[in-house]
Amino acid sequence: MRYVDEFRDPEKARYLVKDIQRLAALIPAAANRPLQLMEFCGGHTHTIFKYGIEQMLPPSVELVHGPGCPVCVLPMGRVDDCVAIAECPEVIFTTFGDAMRVPGSRKSLLQAKATGADVRMVYSPLDALAIARDNPDREVVFFGLGFETTMPATALTILAAERQRVANFSVFCNHITTLPTIKAILDSSDMELDGFLGPGHVSMVIGTHPYHFIAGHYHKPVVIAGFEPLDILQSLWMLLKQLAERRCAVENQYARIVPEAGNTQALDAIQQVFEIREYFEWRGLGSIDHSGVSIRNRFAAFDAERRFSVPNLSIADPKACQCGEVLKGVIKPWECKVFGGACTPETPLGSLMVSSEGACAAYFNYGKMSGEVPATVEEVS
Amino acid sequence: MAANPQPRVKRPHGEVVNLSHGSGGKAMRDLIEGLILPALGASSATPLEDQARIDVPEILGDGGRIAFTTDSYVVDPLSFPGGDIGTLAINGTVNDLAVGGARPIVLSCSLILEEGLPFTILEKMMCSMARAAQAAGVGIVTGDTKVVPRGSADKLFINTAGIGIIPKGVHLEIARIRPGDQLLLNGHLGDHGAAILKARGDLALDADVESDCQPLHGIIAALLAAAPGTRCIRDVTRGGLATVLNEFAGGAGVGMRIVEDSIPVRPVVRGICEVLGLDPLYLANEGKLLAVVPKEEAGAALEALRSCPEGTYAGIIGEVLAGPPGRVVLSSHFGGERIVDMLVGEQLPRIC
Known about the structure:
- Chain A: This is Hydrogenase formation protein HypD.
- The complex is a heterodimer.
- By secondary structure, chain A is an alpha/beta fold.
- Helices cover about 35% and strands about 15% of the residues of chain A.
- Chain A is built from 14 helices and 13 strands.
- Chain A is globular.
- Chain B is α+β, with helices and mostly antiparallel strands.
- Chain B contains 8 helices and 13 strands.
- In chain B, the strands form 3 sheets. A 7-stranded mixed sheet of chain B has the order 8-10-7-11-9-12-13.
- In chain B, strand 2 (about 80) and strand 3 form a beta hairpin.
- The longest helix of chain B is centred in the middle third of the chain and has 18 residues, at about 120-135.
């Protein structure tokens, strides 16, 4: 398949892996401990597991699976708010599929649906707006979720709703921002990262400039990476090359999609509709300053938080959960006390087990169990 | 009874099913005798008994066994490229018998109709059942009809139960799987799942893909003749190939390895999966089988599969390993490997 197979070429992969090994041997820090490279984005985590990339890397290179899965970092209290809105009899609650299984303190959206709430899966906020137009006697709420990748679509939908005067449509805004979160991770004392794979689709919107503080202030190399397996390997190679040459810069591996200046139209839409919240609570990471956005006053009519009274309670994560330590790469998923026992994809305690982009679910589904590498087996003849 | 593809249907008054058609009275008789039986190709001249009476074939006296199965069909939408609920209700149950090594003999047909279902649609689905039954060489010999209030069911639900005969000496069982056995698949994965996605229309997909809905007893008979040592067979339906592999590996306490490059997936289905983030290993099929065959018979088995129209693209996709028990590993084209687990929750709502 064109534009897909080129990025999954095993020959090129073998070549890159070989040169990654060569570079890793040149990096002094890697002599004492494995290099810790964080992929921020859940999409990258998914690719890494799906293609078995971790097993192709030398032991001196370790990947830390960061918090860039918006479903995974959604705190329980916000899920409870969703359920409260969805359970209003006049409401049709629309959401991306992955968010339906995230556990709240009482129930998930999927469980709310089973007990009578009208919860519908959509692939785009514009689908939610269409549902609102088709059901003028109902209140249609879209669960706005995600980083800068999904933010423009929500913003453009709110602008469309205003233009089309759709009065029964609103957004429950849980959009979060990338940069304050990366900063919080870098400021965290229990971390020792050597470099970042930057999120490709977020960067398609915000461009490459906003990452310069990571290289400039924190002296960590950043490579903005695409989502095919060769993209990941090439980006890791670029990170190691910087480390071997003792450089730290922001480099763009995903130049076929990510322009340096980002997407100005998308940024304009975000700017028009959203404003920064003072703080936003993340599952496992706690409250991070300026890490979320809310809907501006001008669009208050489309803000579900103002149209519905939500409990807006902060619910503590289950005590046994170590999602935060996994998110920060302090422990590996299988080192969590409840991994694979009380917490499985079927009965997730922590949301890292819910989404296929969550590090724990990825390990559980695709990867290692209890740190054990899949058994070596004979090749099929 | 013989299925008749050109029935003489006399629809009841009105356009749609209403509750009186399930009440047991005259309206119900008009529906069954006027529409359902003729559309299914059955004669309404024979008095309706409460049960079918089947002559036990002589083969049973010689050590054969009866296979008995049931399945319910609730697909939405009722029609999709390459099939409809009628063809599914026949082929699905026929295949459940066939993978046990049974020759399907007779089916029952139980209908649950939602009040308001247009007669035209009911007739179309019954005709489609009749054609599929005829193609598969099975009779529909008994049935039932219920009508429920609007909203209590979705248009039309069908249950078919089936009886088949397993010849003497055929013992297909998961417990017989051994390390070294080869895994054979009879063709492209995911066509049915992709066709349903397209038919639902809510993803605005424009793709040339048809359901693979087809009966498999013919190809299975050919396989068993060529490879009598075949351990077990399963039709690959909801949950996809990944689910069957996990059931086999778990049930037999063995490991399995499949090779991505050897698993046929049509480019159009692969494209849909790439766009929507789905995995063809979990997509539903309605005309695919996975057979576990001892290594020494694998060549003959593959040849037999490929000689049938349902198996043109058949291939050996992997093998059984001594362990670890229950673990299925995929060797990816890219050079890595990963565990293929059971699907948690649903990839898609209600496929079949």
